[in-house]
Design brief:
This protein has 114 residues and is of the alpha+beta class. The chain contains two helices and five strands; from the N terminus they run βββααββ. The chain is flat.
């Protein structure tokens, strides 16, 4: 059994005195019964959960690291070192777009062409 990699996840509804409802997401390491992650939201949805789930396998970790390395080397600006990578700023006008990377754990923002 993979005892060191087993986690449980649950939502708990919390109602305030004035009728507002919050949802608490809890992730627990089963081996130690410790809560390793939690977050609160008024609107639980798939994206909320997806962005907060712990990693589950070596294959998943390798995929995320590979995707991050591509992002880091090609898109992430290193402003303190002469704008490395030296990507041209295509435009200062146009709407700002969002590209999710790392399975939604991180987002890259850029301007669309005008």
């Amino acid at each position: 059994m993979h005892w060191n990699s087993l986690f449980a996840m649950d939502f708990m509804a919390i109602d305030t005195l004035f009728g507002k409802r919050f949802y608490l997401l809890l992730i627990m390491e089963l081996k130690t019964r410790r809560i390793v992650r939690y977050d609160l939201t008024e609107n639980p949805c798939r994206e909320f959960v997806k962005q907060r789930i712990a990693l589950f396998s070596e294959k998943q970790v390798r995929k995320i690291v590979k995707e991050y390395v591509v992002y880091y080397n090609n898109q992430r600006p290193h402003q303190a070192i002469n704008r490395i990578p030296a990507a041209d700023i295509k435009s200062s006008i146009g709407s700002i777009k969002k590209q999710q990377i790392l399975g939604g754990l991180h987002s890259h923002y850029y301007r669309s062409s005008a």
